[in-house]
Write the structure tokens for this entry.
Amino acid sequence: MWNVAFAELRKLRRPSLFFGTMGAVVFFSALFSALLFLLIDSPQGNSDRGRMVGRPILSLATGGVQGFSSVGGFLGIIALCVFAAQTAQEYTYGTLRNLLVRQPGRLRILLGKLIAMKIFALVMIVLSAVVSISTSVILAPGAKVPTDLWFNADGRHAIFTTFINVIISVIGFGIIGMVLGLLLRSPISAISLGVLWLLIVENLLIAVKSSLQSWLPGAQLSAIATGAESARNVAGVTYTHALVVGGIYVAIGAAVASFLFVRRDVAN
Amino acid sequence: MSNTAISVTDLSKRYGEQVAVSHATFEVPLGTICGFVGPNGSGKTTTMRMLLGLISPTGGTGEILGESIKHPEKYLPRVGAMIEGPAFYPALSGKENLNVLATLGGFPLDRVQGLLEQVGLGDRGKSKFKTYSLGMKQRLGIAAALLPNPKLLMLDEPTNGLDPEGIQEVRALLRSLANDGTSVFVSSHLLSELELISDYLVMLRKGEVVFTGKMSDLMLSQQPVIIAKSINESDLVKLLAIAEQAGHAATIRDGAVHVQGPADWAQNFNRAAFDAGITLSQLTPQLPNLEETFFEMTGGK
């Protein structure tokens, strides 16, 4: 399993993929955090979906990680794309047969790939946290937001819990990507379907019927990243609810995809 | 310990109503080169995939290097394979692609450069796979198959896309591996190549094994052909009649009469032609080559 993980890391560290992904993470982490402070007085809102996050909230111990938690859902989309592409490309390139000849334990292949992609996601999240929090520290004085509480004991706890929440959320999105990759066996189809569903279909459904926010998979995983803060405001979703429902989606998807992967003939 | 590299009994694979492989039974002795031939769609690749644990048989049993094909994890560390062409990550270099597979299989990375040199890619290892020609891709596939220092090498069309020099190099490589004790199971549509290097042969037609055994046994079992040409092409019909009157099947092809019969009948044929006033410009008894035998046995052209 560890051999599979190390082999997968060799693929994930190729410059175009690694630096391309990390570049996107840096850009969007800085953007999400910067908008919080640069648009703090904007009547159109300064956070996702037009939410207003004012000075009183940003001054709290959790203020330093507001940008980081907002970008969590976006990091999830990136993870979904990377996990889906890395999984489905084995079918399109025909390289799955090489992997299975060298490592016939199919579950080991899946677990090894998952471990490697989790490491990749972790690097992404650490980078995003550093960029988001740094951007917030740099821009807070200009927006007249005090940062005194950001790094005291409560502030450090907030950073830690947000970090964990974002990890859970991003890994959840990633596993959904992997499941789509295994089921559809094509990177383009897996990424298109995943992104289309999470960014468009779910938002449309929630716009039509707001109570669906409590039951759709992407909404649950996004809610976990923010500690269920924004979701609770809209549909009364608690963190535990998001964790349980999101976890059920991820677990069922992973179980079905693993079963198919183990049983299915590799005929291409 | 088993003295067969591959042994399958009644191995079958069905996809619904479609039969891909039907009750295939054959053995490949250790340390030999075994050619695996059959027309397109005859089940060669499906059989190889079953032997490598990529697809599950719907019937039958098999052993590779003495281990059941139900447990590929027991024998695959000693097997090298290239199935249905070389498949690698286009954005990675040839060397990095081999590093990925070496890491995966737990093989030492310092084998990689040596293998690249062995297959003639020593100076192109750092180029991306997507920039390789078909022949170079094929060489990289062979290098990947050699990574585990295999006891059994299974290659599906390894000479696809190679130039004549490359084909000759692969032939020499396979022969040298076999001399060192590696068993080689190789499919190819270049039957003349297989005829040159194979000790054993397994021939498939429509999913069924139509021949399995020593290549020499197959060739010796074939009826020799006597090819006769006359200085006057108009005499060919008379020659055909002489052969048929003597009880031998004959056809006119490519400006010559092809007679199926024992080689020593050629002198009788020559005398009969002379008595009929026909002067022969060529009289050659010869055994059919593998290609002709293949077409005859598989019902091809």
Notes: The interface with chain B takes residues 3-4, 6-7, 10-11, 14, 16-17, 89, 93-95, 97-105, 265-267 of chain A (CB under 8 Å). The longest helix of chain A spans residues 106-139. The two ends of chain A are 23 Å apart (CA to CA).
